[in-house]
Amino acid sequence: MKEKEIKTVIKECQVEELSSADRELVERAKAMTRTSYAPYSKFHVGAAILMDNGEIVGGSNQENAAYSSGTCAERSACFYASARYPGVPMKKIAIAAWTRLHAAEDTPDAECFQHLPISPCGSCRQALLEYEAKYGPIEVILYGLDRTYILPSVASLLPLCFTEF
Ligand code: THU
């Protein structure tokens, strides 16, 4: 039996080290956390997608009392992007998360972003992958107060992914 290794290369940096265009995308993802509807989890996620036409499309998690009817920020962003600009490739997605859940009462809002990056759930990876498989790689920028991760593609987050569509 052979063993195969699947390798994912993640770049790690401080947000200040990103290009100004990437910092702007991160700022848009951070701003989108304020549009999140998360009365149940109180965990506010924002996503911003840079389109090939230069536009930035945002999304945020939208929860629902029937829990499974809600959706994550990444899917709300990529579905809206595809509806707004059908057929236009998505070049990059930035993701940020904000919560006061474990913060002291006097913590300023700006310090309530997650210290470590959060990464899209499996369903969001699969949803993003479909656009990537059709139109080309989507770079993934995962923002955290302490560090930011950059991945070259959605597929790099989804080894042995299903692309037979
Ligand atoms: N959530 C996202 O929007 N994106 C992620 O990458 C992980 C989780 C949302 C789903 C739910 O509304 C809340 O965060 C708590 O899980």
Key attributes of the depicted protein:
single chain; about 160 residues; alpha+beta; 6-stranded mixed sheet; 3 helices; about 20% strand; binds tetrahydrodeoxyuridine
Q: Can you walk me through this structure?
A:
- This protein has 165 residues and is an alpha+beta fold.
- Helix content is 24%, strand content 20%.
- The protein has helices at 20-32, 73-84, 122-135, and strands at 11-13, 44-51, 56-60, 90-98, 139-142, 148-151.
- Strands 1-6-5-4-2-3 form a six-stranded mixed sheet.
- The longest helix has 14 residues, at 122-135.
- The model has no long low-confidence stretch (mean pLDDT 97).
- Bound molecules: tetrahydrodeoxyuridine.
- Tetrahydrodeoxyuridine binds next to helix 2.
Q: Quick recap of the structure?
A:
This protein has 165 residues and is of the alpha+beta class. It contains three helices and six strands, in the order βαββαβαββ.
Outline = globular
Average pLDDT confidence is: 97
Bound molecule types: tetrahydrodeoxyuridine
Number of strands: 6
Q: Which value, in Å, is the CA radius of gyration?
A: 16 Å
Percent in strands: 15-25%
The biggest sheet, with number of strands, parallel, antiparallel or mixed sense and barrel status, is: 6 strands, mixed
How many DSSP H or I helices? 3
First and last CA, distance? 30 Å
- The assigned structural class equals alpha+beta
Order of helices and strands: EHEEHEHEE
- With strands numbered from the N-terminus, the spatial order across the biggest sheet is 1-6-5-4-2-3
Helix percentage range: 10-25%
Low-confidence stretches: none
